């Protein structure tokens, strides 16, 4: 049987097809054997796998159900369909859902995992107004974020979360007074959780601030760590020990210089007084 070589870089659908083939072959399935359990003809499955036909959300979900892959195919479909995720981030999120510890640092905006739905929608819709994304992509960004929050916070035992935010995150008004007031209230509630630690890196830290880009560090159940950082247009995911160790050291230095949680909450309350 002729076996077409796949180039996942050729197109989004080719990327999905290559991913589908890798999982199918890893589990020992033939295309024709998947036809009945997935509910698609062998020719249709072949066309998706070789990048000749766009996968649908229904196809992705059927693949997840048949191959027992959780929601990996659905997430891959959402990634290539809407293009809202930076390189490396989908892989990072796969680890995030199983983390026992999460460390976050952000500048300018509240970290996504701590955003209220209204705050997140304002940010997504502003990208639409700038022409950076479509409304459909903006909606998908918010839906994806809310799914991430649910995955982490509604677990039977949520991970420990350590969050350091630059002071600009709470000073920068987003969405008007009501949206910002609700967001600040949410931060105060977050800090009261026994499994969280919230700190503000004040402006006065100046050059002592050890991180200059948003950073995510997560610890897995086996105590291994992964690292993700991003700029405006590029993401970087890393599991290599030297890179992770360097990021963790910088994070610890940042925590040491930042305000304590009590001081941070006091600052948030002070900013909150200026909102309704």
TrEMBL record:
Q: Which SUPFAM superfamilies does the UniProt record give? A: lambda repressor-like DNA-binding domains
The superkingdom listed in its UniProt entry is Bacteria
Supply one GO molecular-function term.
DNA binding
InterPro entries according to UniProt: Cro/C1-type_HTH, DUF5753, Lambda_DNA-bd_dom_sf
Q: Which Gene3D superfamilies match?
A: lambda repressor-like DNA-binding domains
Q: Where is the HTH cro/C1-type domain?
A: 19-74
Coiled-coil features, chain-numbered ranges: none
| One Pfam entry name | HTH_31
Q: What is this protein called?
A: Helix-turn-helix domain-containing protein
Name the source organism.
Streptomyces roseirectus
